[in-house]
Amino acid sequence: MSSLLHLAAALDLPGIPDAGAYVELARLAERGGLDFVTLDDSFARPGPDALGVLCRVAPATRRIGLVPTVTTTHTEPFQVQAAVATLDWVSRGRAGWRIDVSTTEGEARLFGRRHTAPAEALWQEAGEVADVAARSWDSWEDGAEIRDVATGRFLDRDRLHRVDFTGTAFSVRGPSTVPRPPQGHPVRVVDATDGPARAVAARYADVALVRVAAPAQAAGVRDELRERARAAGRNPDALRVLVSLLVDLGDGEHAAEPGHGGGGPRPTGRGPLYRGGPVDLAELVAVWHADGVTDGFHLVPVEPRRDLERLVNGTVALLQHRGQFRTFYPGSTLREHLGLTRPANQYAVPGATAATGGAS
User: Fold this and answer.
1) Residues 316-330: tens digit of each pLDDT
2) Which residues touch 103 (CB under 8 Å, ≥6 apart)?
3) pTM of this prediction?
């Protein structure tokens, strides 16, 4: 596993369209040195477009990774990959993409092109979109842009490649309209809690999120994901597995009741919930990571402003003081924060084929 502790937080502000509020929270998270922030999105409820909001946040921040949710259902894969690549350019290499699917008939009716499908089929399609996105990002080799005024050459056509991908529900010819992103491949994130998503996470994700309430559960899912990644031909050490918890830091420094805080998270209808104080949370984070059951945590504040502030100024500050979490960013890109290498271009490497699109 990665020996470094990785921490991320959600920026979700239901019903708030003001970009300034997201900028404020992202800057707070960046002050704490968090690896990345996520912003959820869904066609099933009203709210601002997550990717658009984080494109606004990007120039107002300097180091923190920015990971919007973008569904692969009802959207066009070619446009999705281009939009995520654009976020990577706008943020100078700090973009991620939380891959999700749209499962309800109500969401399908918004588009009117097809009915919903079983989760297994939707996640199979999501895997294909993740695959074709990697191929599209690689369709421009590094240095393909010449921009030579003297000769009038803008591109080296020999460094552009057609994708020619046909999936179960779409096809993409390529190449992309956006040059290869600064990170090569923006970081792909998948919530691997539910079964149908795990195959996609193991094959394509750089970061897998798991919503579990006990260390043994976290260790079991992490071992399964790593073994699946190995079976898919990947190096399992290139997959970061983070436990995702709801956090309610409004109840003081100690556990308010059994099952909370010092007693550990408890299952709820929204997912595992930690309720207690920042000190107890720091203990939980440190112990679970030291025991090797997780590479880190993705924390979802119940009260965004209050809980994120207590997380950064309390939990993170304590972990930093103890030498258990970094006090500065080791690089400038999200991949560098996570200790992940920049992927080789599958079209430029001798002997490589497009089938390697899932490897990172």
Assistant:
1) 999 999 999 999 998
2) 73, 116, 119, 122
3) 0.92
Cβ–Cβ under 8 Å, residues 123 and 200 = yes
pLDDT, position 357: 38
Q: What is the 3 state secondary structure string of 292-320?
A: CCCCEEEEEECCHHHHHHHHHHHHHHHHH
User: Which of 26, 33, 25 shows the shortest CA–CA distance to 338?
Assistant: 33
Using CA atoms, how far apart are residues 234 and 226, in angstroms rounded to an integer?
9
As a whole number of angstroms, the longest Cα–Cα distance in the chain is 73
pLDDT at 165 over 90: yes
215/143: higher pLDDT: 215
Q: Which of 15, 104, 77 is nearest to 304 (CA)?
A: 15
Per residue, the 3-state secondary structure of the chain, as one string, reads CCCCCEEEEECCCCCCCCHHHHHHHHHHHHHCCCCEEEECCCCCCCCCCHHHHHHHHHHHCCCCEEEEEEECCCCCHHHHHHHHHHHHHHCCCCEEEEEECCCCHHHHHHHCCCCCCCHHHHHHHHHHHHHHHHHHHHCECCCCEEEECCCCEEECHHHECCCCEECCCCEECCCCCCCCCCCCCCEEEEECCCHHHHHHHHHHCCEEEECCCCHHHHHHHHHHHHHHHHHCCCCHHHCEEEEEEEEECCCCCCCCCCCCHHHCCECCCCCCEEECCHHHHHHHHHHHHHCCCCCEEEEEECCHHHHHHHHHHHHHHHHHHCCCCCCCCCCCCHHHHHCCCCCCCCCCCCCCCHHHHHCC
Check whether 245 has a pLDDT greater than 50: yes
CA distance 257 to 251: 10
Structure tokens at 321: 């003081």
Query: Chain-wide mean pLDDT for the chain?
Result: 91
* Separation of alpha carbons 351 and 330, rounded Å: 33
